[in-house]
Write a structure and sequence with these properties.
single chain; 235 residues; alpha/beta; Ribosomal Protein L25, Chain P; Alpha/beta knot; 2 domains; eight-stranded parallel β-sheet; five-stranded mixed β-sheet; 7 helices; 31% helix
Amino acid sequence: MQLFYDAALNESTENYRLSREESKHLIKVLRKKTGDFVQVTNGNGLLATAVIAVADENKASLQITAKEQLPQRKSSFELYLAPTKMTDRLEWMLEKATELGFEKYQPILCARSERKELKTERLEKTVISAMKQSGQAHLPKVEEIQKIQQAIANCSAEQKYICYCGEASKVDLFTSLENGKSAAVFIGPEGDFTPEEVAFALDHGFQVASLGTNRLRTETAGLVAVMTFNLKQLP
């Protein structure tokens, strides 16, 4: 069933009007008609089933017929990653990470970062699209860029890791992760974290982690971290 997103959807919503863009997609592209059913989510777990009341490609409207509040996952995963120079590579990573399942992307500004600024509007659109495509009702958060020291200090996950290519005592991420506990993984820029940044993380309860023997691109490393966490959540 086709899934739409509207942050304003709540328990009292009975009727819903699609935007012109969504109306055109529903009627012209998907060729839905009056009486067909679709779903709408607010990205916070509320999932509504609705019937198309008016099949107008400019202002289609829906009648809500049922609602369900879906629970959050028992354990959450937060990805702290230095934005890549090419935005399309970052968007690709976030799209795939959303499909797999994760809770938050926090861009971090490091000493060796290639990008000092980041506009999050396109990234938010990417995760919304991926959420709808993968049929989920919980939208990952995309935060504003933050200096790594602030991000490290504010991180409250039960398991905290910083992935580092330099010389250090490391744990294997897959082996170290525990099922049922929240986790955060920090991925550095192309030039990696500085030794000082790693030391700061260690002082705040982090472990230095390895993602394997191969040197990975930043966006690949981010996706591997998300996949690794989700694999450890399997029964």
